[in-house]
Amino acid sequence: MASLANKINSKSPKNIPAEGFTVKAAMKNSKVKPPPISGAYKEKSSVPTKFRKYYERGDFPVSIEHDAKGNKIAWKVEIEKLDYHHYLPLFFEGLCETQHPYDFLARQGIHDMLEHGGAKVLPVIPQLIIPIKHALNTRNRKVICTTLKALLHLVESGDLVGEALVPYYRQILPMLNAFKNSNLNIGDGIDYGQQKRENIGDLINETLEELEKRGGSDAYINIKYMVPTYESCVQN
Amino acid sequence: MCHIAYRFQLAGYRDEIEYCSVGDNSEVERWPESGFVKKLQRKKDGYFYYFNRSRECADKDLFKIKLFEY
């Protein structure tokens, strides 16, 4: 009988995969599976944006010019006469795009509108938060880079813009907190691509510093709340 | 000088004199701090070009530029 029991035991499979915290996991011959990957840094699949739809429909008063220096936008109407409440959020929505010409158009359109907008930018800020949040949430490194540069330009485009952004840190900063340490650690080596400003960790630090400098007295404490590892560039 | 010539010629004009003589462009919009051209209306279709505060040509390439005078 004993030999039969041994035979049965030797035939029973060992290391049966089992989910954690189940009855099966408590069995001697089971092996508990490791927890699944959370996917916190996994790129999200992008859906076609409204920006793309509007561009293909010919709603934007712009045309792309290809010249020796690179591409450029020609505006069919003067930027000063544009309705910022309509166009600027649409261009910011285009930040999620990674395909040409949509990505270039969105980037350049935002640049021109912020550069020449003056006081017209400030009232539009509440409408820009959702597109910025969506762009950062894609977790696509290229998109995050472009969005951070756009955010930097936005903060610098007017005197009160930085302060107007403070109530929206809760929407914008979580992704900055997640990618803050995404840096290139090469010891004493030279990062030859540093002039391209594509290092996300550095860009995030630069953006946070600019937000703090231009965000008024409440900026630092609000940034610190969302990004605990951030150290002030003004107080220290 | 080079960026001024570049910007006018990109818009289809030879220089500032020609730009001011065509259409209703009596004056060129410039950036207040640097005096660089800010906005030009294109000659062929009337579209608008907006230029940056800074020069298009990087400082390291400045010595390579040839500027022709008429």
UniProtKB/TrEMBL annotation, chain A:
Q: What are this entry's molecular-function GO terms?
A: Hsp70 protein binding; Hsp90 protein binding
Entry superkingdom = Eukaryota
**InterPro entries in the record, alphabetically?**
ARM-type_fold (IPR016024), Parkin_co-regulated_protein (IPR019399)
Q: Tell me the protein's name.
A: Uncharacterized protein
Q: Which organism is it from?
A: Trichoplax adhaerens (Trichoplax reptans)
Automatic annotation (TrEMBL), chain B:
Annotated organism of origin: Trichoplax adhaerens
Family in the record: Belongs to the MEIG1 family.
Which superkingdom heads the taxonomic lineage of this protein's source?
Eukaryota
Q: What is this protein called?
A: Meiosis expressed gene 1 protein homolog
Please provide, in alphabetical order, the Gene Ontology terms of the cellular component aspect for this entry. nucleus
- Coiled coil regions in record: none
